[in-house]
């Protein structure tokens, strides 16, 4: 029910993903004011000069609804800013003369009219808008002062009170609707900006940045760092168009993003065809090494599945080198215009060497990671492998989840025993 209502609202006023805040506000205000003016035409039946007031309300209402349809269908609301404001001011000025002037109730509408105009203002200078509105209202008061005979008065005090009271209540309702519309749309924009920020930074880091305009760097005794790189990327990329290249990378990285999110790790960054993620931060935990290896296995399975599809279509394929290391690192946010959450330390360099020394299609881990995950995974010792600027490092290949921990239907997924042991680690961490 809620989704249906939201879809209907988006259909009426515009989708936040496709239409700007100002555009959606214009659509909303034009439609609401148009409908209210048409209803006002019907409600003016008891007033003197009923025919004129009826036509003014009806004509202005139809004009506003026409502008709504033009804006909604053609997406040119910014060209309708002044026609919309002139329609409102022309209507209010005419009502000033035909409905009691300053002692009537129509002058109340000049305040929400200015509020509407200010909300919808785009590139124009606000002081020009204010000057224009002040000039119109000052001109109307001046005409009434010097030419009182131009104002059509009420036939009785009772009519004046009824009209003034009705208009006052109507303006309150209109103002309330405007505030509600604005607050709803601002909430949508806030959620959009928060969502974009959370695509760049972890939630706790984003909150700290919003509250303090800076993030205190933090040292972590133990995190697991995962690096990947596409083997043969340059050679294959030379045979692809820019669109194919970016589309293929986007496909892989979107898949990696989903896997990372599933295992509650943090994506750190991508550099070209390289992908970097980490577990155990910003909130520390005791399961980060297991999470990283589960991610690594799922990454390789994702790549293998896509490789089969590409080969069946006689298309070039990429394969993945993947390395994981566990150790100390420092994390923090750098930059001012484009924030970046990053990690530094010797462990990061070691993880990078694990990747570059890895075997295509395998999950290559260090001794430090092996010591934390060997209970859960079948691992094969590769021996001491020469790593650039690191000398010889003990490396292991994670072959699978241990048989007694494998799901009976899918051996690449953990069973309930695995999950119980895993949850016990999480509980220990919380204690």
UniProtKB/TrEMBL annotation:
The keyword Disulfide bond does not apply. Gene3D superfamilies: Nucleotide cyclase (3.30.70.1230). It catalyses: ATP = 3',5'-cyclic AMP + diphosphate. It is an enzyme of class 4 (lyase). Residues 224-355 form the Guanylate cyclase domain. Belongs to the adenylyl cyclase class-4/guanylyl cyclase family. It comes from Leptospira ognonensis. It is found in: Membrane. Its EC number is 4.6.1.1. Homodimer. Can also exist as monomer. Its main location: membrane. It comes from the Bacteria. GO terms for biological process: cAMP biosynthetic process; intracellular signal transduction. SUPFAM superfamilies: Nucleotide cyclase (SSF55073). The chain crosses the membrane at residues 25-46, 52-70, 77-98, 104-121, 128-146, 166-183. This is Adenylate cyclase. One of its GO terms (cellular component) is plasma membrane. InterPro entries: A/G_cyclase (IPR001054), A/G_cyclase_CS (IPR018297), Cyclic_nucleotide_synthase (IPR050401), Nucleotide_cyclase (IPR029787). GO terms for molecular function: adenylate cyclase activity; ATP binding; metal ion binding. Keywords: ATP-binding, cAMP biosynthesis, Lyase, Magnesium, Membrane, Metal-binding, Nucleotide-binding, Transmembrane, Transmembrane helix.
């Amino acid at each position: 029910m809620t989704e249906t209502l939201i879809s209907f609202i988006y259909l009426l006023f515009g989708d936040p993903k496709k239409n700007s805040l100002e555009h959606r506000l214009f659509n909303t205000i034009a439609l609401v004011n148009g409908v209210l003016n048409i209803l006002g035409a019907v409600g003016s039946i008891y007033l003197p000069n009923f025919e004129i007031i009826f036509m003014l309300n009806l004509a202005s209402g139809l004009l506003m609804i026409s502008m709504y349809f033009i804006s909604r269908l053609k997406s040119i609301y910014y060209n309708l800013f002044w026609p919309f404001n002139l329609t409102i001011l022309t209507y209010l000025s005419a009502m000033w003369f035909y409905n009691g002037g300053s002692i009537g109730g129509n002058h109340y509408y000049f305040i929400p009219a200015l509020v509407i105009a200010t909300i919808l203002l785009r590139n124009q200078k606000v002081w020009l808008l204010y000057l224009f509105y002040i000039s119109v209202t000052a001109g109307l008061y001046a005409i009434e002062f010097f030419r009182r005979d131009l104002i059509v008065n009420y036939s009785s005090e009772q009519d004046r009170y009824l009209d003034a009271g009705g208009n006052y209540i109507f303006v309150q309702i209109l103002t309330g609707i405007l505030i509600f519309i604005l607050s709803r749309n601002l909430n949508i924009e806030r959620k959009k900006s928060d969502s974009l920020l959370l695509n760049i930074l972890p939630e706790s880091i984003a909150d700290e940045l919003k509250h303090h305009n800076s993030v205190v760097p933090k040292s972590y005794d133990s995190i697991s760092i995962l690096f990947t790189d596409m083997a043969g990327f340059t050679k294959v990329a030379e045979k692809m168009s820019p669109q194919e290249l970016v589309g293929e990378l986007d496909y892989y990285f979107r898949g990696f993003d989903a896997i990372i999110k599933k295992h509650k790790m943090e994506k750190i960054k991508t550099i070209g065809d390289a992908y970097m993620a980490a577990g155990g931060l910003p909130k520390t935990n005791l399961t980060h090494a297991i999470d990283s290896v589960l991610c690594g296995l799922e990454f390789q399975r994702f790549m293998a599945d896509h490789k089969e599809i590409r080969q069946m279509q006689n298309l070039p394929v990429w394969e993945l080198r993947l390395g994981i290391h566990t150790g100390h690192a420092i994390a923090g946010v750098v930059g001012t215009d484009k924030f970046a959450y990053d990690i530094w330390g010797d462990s990061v360099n070691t993880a990078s060497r694990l990747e570059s020394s890895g075997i295509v299609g395998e999950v290559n881990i260090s001794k430090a990671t092996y010591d934390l995950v060997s209970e859960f995974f079948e691992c094969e010792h590769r021996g001491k492998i020469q790593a650039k600027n690191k000398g010889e490092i003990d490396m292991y290949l994670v072959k699978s989840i241990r048989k007694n921990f494998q799901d009976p239907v899918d051996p690449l997924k953990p069973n309930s025993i695995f999950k119980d042991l895993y949850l016990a680690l999480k509980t220990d961490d919380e204690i």
